[in-house]
Structure formats: C-alpha cells, structure tokens
Amino acid sequence: MKIMSAPNAAIYMVGGGGVGLSHPCDSHVYLIESSGEAALIDVGSGIEPELMKERILADGIALASIKKLILTHSHWDHGRGAAWWKRETGAALAVHRLGVDTLEKTKWPTSHVEKHGIPSEAAQVEYPLDDGDVIRVGALELEVIHTPGHSNDSISLVTRFDGRTVLFGGDTCFAEGGHGTVNAETDFRAYRDSVRRLDRLKVDVLLPGHKHFVMSRAFAHVALLERKLSGNWTDVVATRVPFFPTWWLEHDASLYDDARQSSTEQQNP
After folding, report:
1. Containing H/E element for 184?
2. Domain 2-267 classified CATH 2.40.50.140?
C-alpha cells in the first residue's frame, strides 16, 4: 500500500498485524524505494511472511531490489522474520549494536512463541548501527537516532522525503502521544530524553511501529508524548493496547498453529 510518493521514490506500508495488512503478530513493516533500490524497515514476526511478500509483489516491487533490512529494535514482532527475509531477498541486516546478540544468538527466549516450544531462527547482522549513522537507500538518506526507552536498542530513523521530514518511530513514539510497552524495568529518564530529541526535529510525518500513521503536523503527536514523559507517573498510560502481538497470542491460541506451520516450512523448504 503506497502511502507517500515523489519523483523516483516511494514509501509503502507492506505489513501491519493491527491493521490487517499481514499476520496479526506483525509490527508495521514499511518499504522505502528510491532510484530502483529498496529497503524494509522492520520485518515482522516471521509468521506467514508470505503475506507481505505477496503484497510487495502486487505493488510491482521486485524482491531483488530490497538491499537492506533495517530494524527499529530487536523485539520479536519487529525482527523475528529477519532470517526468512534474508533468504528471500539476499538483503543485508541492520540493527543497533545492542540488538545484534538477540538476532544472532539469543533469539527471543522470553517471547510467547518460544515459551510454546516454537523455534526461532538466528540471522547474521551485517550492519551494527550506532547513533548518527546514515543509511542510504538509492538517493534517500536515513539518519539513525538511538532512542532507548522502550528497549535499550531502539532506534528511530529520520529522512527528508519530497520536502517533508519523515520519522520512522518504531515503538518509541506512536500517534496521539502513544508509547511502546513499558514495565518496571523501563528507564523512563532515557525514554524521556529520547522523545525530547525527536520533539526537537519537528517532524511532518510519523510512521510508527503500531497504530495509525500521521501524514501532517506529526510534531504535535511527538510533543504530546514528550509532555507525558516529562510530567507525573500517572500521565503515562499503562493500559495494554489491544492489538499488540502479545495480546493476539494471549487471546487467540489458534495463532500458535500459524507460528508452528511457518517454523516447519522454514525448516523444510
């Protein structure tokens, strides 16, 4: 689904479990294309990734044009599909250096799928990222901003697209001042400082990891979250957002069958 276009460039939303574009356990997955080169921003849960593949092909994008897989962080709903996508596209994988171990070794041991005995597949990381790195996709440049808070390896990506500042916010910043999952171990000071950095960008467009995207005046949505995190503890909404992947698995056991089937197919292609 194309959501932005410019001469020789486009941004597509190709996955998103919460909005029915792909398996319910997927985060939002975006594809950016410029001058014949493409990249995926996040890769989803690895459950029925063929759904996203079909959508990409239907949009007229060749899989061979996808040269990079860029993760906003290493949580399983954003990164567990990395090994499958590397095989399908031959693309190189990029994640913040603090997330490399998860992709290459630990493989989400606390995720619901692992707890149900459904194995995950490791993926080699070619590009360990740091704050300030620049990733090029065709003529576009994506600046890496390390935004710890939701996770210690969270990054946001900012680019200029057809005269507008576009922010891929991962699970750091959602529309309407929303935020990613937090718990007793969350470093709220780091989270606040991360959002303050994003607030100073005054972005036009927000493409987050969940919920709806914002196509204009997105800075107001970021500013609202900054005010929440700079205020009282009670200003941070603690309720679970009902379309997060963990919610789906906790309330629809049939989705484990999808995960088992996908794992079997990946082990026996």
Report:
1. none
2. no
